[in-house]
Structure formats: structure tokens, C-alpha cells
Design a protein that fits this description.
Blueprint: E1 4-5, E2 14-15, H1 30-34, H2 47-57, H3 62-66, H4 72-80, H5 87-97, H6 107-120, H7 126-136, H8 146-163, H9 166-177, H10 185-201, H11 205-218, H12 225-241, H13 245-262, H14 265-281, H15 285-300, H16 305-321, H17 325-336, H18 344-360, H19 364-380, H20 391-407, H21 411-428, H22 432-448, H23 452-474
Antiparallel strand pairs: 1-2
Helix pairs in contact: 2-4, 6-7, 6-8, 8-9, 8-10, 9-10, 10-11, 11-12, 12-13, 12-14, 13-14, 14-15, 14-16, 15-16, 16-17, 17-18, 18-19, 18-20, 19-20, 20-21, 21-22, 22-23
Length: 475
């Protein structure tokens, strides 16, 4: 079971990759079809734009604002910038909207939003970020200046993404859609990028990839190297989830170069890991191994257990595929050393890999010991397939229970879980190696029970899955 590194939500979360997405990246309009392109943005709000911004913010119609002051058609012209208002009309409009005649200088507000934005660049300490947000989110100086307010509201999307409050993130995104026309170039870029983050967290990787690529298209030339690296890294990870190898490799390499220049060890390791996963998928095993080694070496030097788990687990998975079970077990056991007890999905995922290694080595005692440990975790935490959880847990649970029934000789349940639950998941993710592996188990079981025709069919399906794997790698 392959783990793909995710860093946009909780850094402890890993997801199964979805099926390949057939992006026509040679088409000049494929990204434009995803979201409307706006490559030229305003620098400052003029009078009409400012009036329209506050009217929409107050959720008032043109007729409501214009009533008793001037004809609504005249206000439309003012908002469109084709007519300048008279001073008396402007004073009356501003009074109705409860705003000053002109924007106020707001240096403290700018500092507040800048500090908030900076804190979100290092989301590891979520408690501190949440404390800071609680201190400032009602501060009046964040709302007296249009640009400060827009910047703050865009950053709120990222805050909700980071803290896992996706309902609030969705609500804020919908709200900010009404104000896209008022954003400057950087604000609009960040809005698109954070929308991509949100889509990614919902596992809508295809939409996330399109949104990230739009963000790249409209990114201002003033972007810092660290911000550009983060965007490239996000694109690379998302392309990996979509199995779009060319984009995954290209943007992971671009991100890697930036992080090497900026010397960001954690991201360097994560880039190597992402490149390794993609190289392994397309059959470049020698190159993949080199990148796994780089990721592992760097990861071991950092005080980051999540990264250590990811590098050890994926390296173990790599050796498992090559049937080097001793080395696979070595790295998979190392991965368990970096997994907190509350990360049940990760522990079970690692147990599944270790159990399969021990079965392949005919060490049934070790396999059953791991099975017992994993099953006890499920009983102690009262977890089942019906437990409200993310897709990762459900998928890991199904594989673990398949192995449970296999080792306990409960053939009917093993067959049910493999055929009705596990294989469909692997098929939806194009997990041909796993499909072949479990059809092989199923074929052996049929053979032991004397169901030779079913055994032959299972082995044939296993062979077809491995052929698909080779064909897919050549595409």
C-alpha cells in the first residue's frame, strides 16, 4: 500500500493516489476552461470600484444605495468608472455605506495582516497560530482599509485550511468569490492558490491541479523564491496524486532547486520523496532509489517524526515491490518508531505491509503477532468500517481485515473482502501491483480448497494486473 506525502493539511496525513487524469496539457485553453483567466489586475481602487466593493460587502442592491441620492443608472456608471460622482453625491453615498470619503492610511492594520500572513508560512505550531487569530480576528483596523481587509480575508482561507476547519474555508471561499474583481494581482493569485489547497484537502486532486496551474499562470513577477517554491511543490504533489508524471516530475524538480538554493532541508527531503515515487511508478527504479536515499538521509537528520515515517515507509514499500523482504521489514519497522499511537491509520498501514512481508517469507508467527497487535488497536478504540473517518482509514481497514480473515482461514470473509471491497478500491486507484498481489493470494486459497477453475481465473487476473502495470509504466 503506497503512501503519498501530503503537507497541505495535517502533516501526518497520507492519501492513496487517485486514478490517472488525462490532462491535455498541449492545449492552450485547458487551464482557462477550469477557471477564468484574469492576468491584469488593478493596483489601487478608484472611487467607483471602492463604492461597489462596500455595496457588495453590505449586500445592498444598486437601487438601495442610490435611493434618495441619484438615479440607479447613474450609480452604475460611477461604479463602472465611466462617470465621476459630484462631491455631494459622493458624500451621500459614503454616508449610506458608512465609509469615509477616501481610504485611510492604515499602517497598524498592514502590520497586523503581514504578521498573520507570516505566521501561516510556518504552520507546524497550530496552537500558536490559533491564539494569534483569536487575538486579531475582531480587530477593527483589519476592516477600515479595503486592501488590508481583502488581504486578511484571503489569508483567512489559508488559516481555515491549516487548522482543518474546511466548512469555514468553504464558506470563506464562496464569500470571497464575490470580491475577485477587487483583488490586486497578489491577492488574486493567493486566492486561487488557497482554493487549490482546499480542493486538495477534499481529495479533489484534479480540480486542485487545475486551480494551482491557474495560480501559476496569474502569479505576479514579484513572488518570493519561497512562495514560488511552495507553489511548485503543491503542483508536484497534486500531479503525483493525479498520476500525471510529466507535471509531477517537472514541478517537483523546480521546487527542489529552489529549496536547495534557499536551504530548506525538510522540503528538500519531501521533494526527493515525491520524485522517487514518480520515478518508481514509471519504472526508473535506479533513479527512484537514489531519491529515496536522499530523502531518507536528510529526513533522519531532522527533528520531524512525520517526515521520518514517510521516508522509511516509502523506502520499505519500494523494497517490498522488489521482494527484498528483509530490507522492506527493516525500513517498515523503523517507520513504526516515528508513529504516534493516535495515528491509527498509519500504524495499520505499516502493519499491513509488514504482515505481507512475513507471509511471503513464510514467517507466519510474526505475521500473526502483528495481526493481533493491529486487531487489538481496533478493539480498544472501537473502530470499524462504519466508524466516521476519512478515506484513508476505510481503505487501510479493509486491507487489514482482508489479511485478518486470510490468516484466520475464514475463506468466505476473505473472498468477500478481496472481491467486493479491496479490489474495487485498488482498481479505482490503478493499483495494479496490489491487485495482482491479492489475486495471487486468492488464487492460492482457491487452489488449496480444490476450486481449481476459480484458482485459474484468479491467477489469470493477477497476471493481467501485472501486465497492466508494465503497460501503464510505459505510457
Amino acid at each position: 500500500m503506497e503512501a503519498v506525502k501530503i503537507v497541505l493539511k495535517k502533516p501526518s496525513v497520507y492519501y492513496f493516489p487517485k486514478k490517472p487524469v488525462n490532462f491535455d496539457t498541449n492545449s492552450p485553453s485547458w487551464m482557462i476552461d477550469a477557471l477564468p483567466m484574469q492576468t491584469e489586475r488593478r493596483e489601487l481602487m478608484d472611487t467607483g470600484t471602492r463604492l461597489k466593493y462596500h455595496r457588495l460587502k453590505s449586500k445592498m442592491s444598486i437601487e438601495e444605495v442610490a435611493s434618495g441620492i441619484l438615479p440607479s443608472r447613474e450609480l452604475k456608471k460611477i461604479e463602472a468608472g465611466t462617470k465621476a460622482p459630484s462631491l455631494p453625491d459622493l458624500q451621500a453615498l459614503c454616508k449610506k455605506l458608512d465609509i469615509p470619503l477616501a481610504p485611510k492610511d492604515n499602517p497598524i492594520g498592514k502590520v497586523l495582516v503581514k504578521n498573520f500572513k507570516t505566521s501561516l508560512l510556518n504552520p507546524q505550531n497550530k496552537g500558536k497560530i490559533m491564539e494569534q487569530y483569536a487575538d486579531i480576528h475582531d480587530h477593527p483596523l483589519l476592516h477600515i482599509d479595503e486592501d488590508v481587509e481583502l488581504e486578511y480575508r484571503v489569508q483567512q482561507i489559508r488559516y481555515f485550511n491549516i487548522t482543518g476547519d474546511l466548512d469555514s474555508a468553504e464558506e470563506k471561499i464562496k464569500d470571497m468569490e464575490r470580491f475577485k474583481e477587487f483583488m490586486n494581482q497578489e491577492q488574486y493569485y493567493l486566492f486561487q492558490k488557497y482554493k487549490g489547497n482546499y480542493d486538495y484537502l477534499l481529495n479533489d486532486y484534479e480540480q486542485a491541479l487545475k486551480t494551482y496551474l491557474v495560480a501559476e499562470k496569474i502569479s505576479p513577477p514579484s513572488l518570493s523564491a519561497s512562495e514560488l517554491g511552495d507553489l511548485y511543490f503543491s503542483i508536484g504533489l497534486t500531479a503525483t496524486q493525479c498520476w500525471v508524471y510529466n507535471l509531477a516530475y517537472k514541478y517537483s524538480e523546480l521546487a527542489l532547486k529552489i529549496y536547495q538554493q534557499e536551504f530548506v532541508p525538510k522540503r528538500i527531503a519531501e521533494c526527493h520523496l515525491n520524485i522517487a515515487i514518480n520515478e518508481r511508478r514509471v519504472g526508473n527504479f535506479k533513479t527512484a532509489k537514489e531519491h529515496y536515499k536522499h530523502a531518507l538521509t536528510i529526513g533522519q537528520k531532522l527533528d520531524n517524526d512525520v517526515l521520518k515515517f514517510s521516508t522509511e515507509y516509502n523506502y520499505g514499500y519500494f523494497y517490498f515491490q522488489f521482494q527484498n523482504f528483509e530490507l522492506a521489514i527493516y525500513h517498515l519497522e523503523n517507520a513504526l518508531n516515528y508513529t504516534p499511537p493516535e495515528y491509527t491509520s498509519h500504524i495499520l498501514m505499516d502493519y499491513c505491509m509488514l504482515i505481507k512481508c512475513h507471509i511471503e517469507m513464510s514467517d507466519m508467527e510474526s505475521a500473526e503477532d502483528l495481526l493481533s497487535k493491529g486487531y487489538n488497536i481496533l478493539i480498544e478504540k472501537n473502530l470499524s468500517l462504519d466508524t466516521p473517518s476519512n478515506n484513508l482509514f476505510k481503505e487501510v481497514y479493509i486491507e487489514f481485515m482482508s489479511l485478518y480473515y486470510y490468516l484466520n482461514d475464514d475463506f468466505s470473509k476473505f473472498e468477500e473482502y478481496i472481491v467486493d471491497k479491496l479490489i474495487p478500491i485498488f482498481e479505482s486507484h490503478h493499483k495494479f501491483f496490489e491487485i495482482g498481489f491479492y489475486y495471487g493470494y486468492l488464487g492460492n486459497t482457491y487452489n488449496k480448497l480444490g476450486h481449481f477453475e476459480k484458482s485459474a481465473q484468479a491467477f489469470y487476473k493477477a497476471t493481467q494486473a501485472y501486465k497492466k502495470l508494465m503497460t501503464f509504466n510505459e505510457e
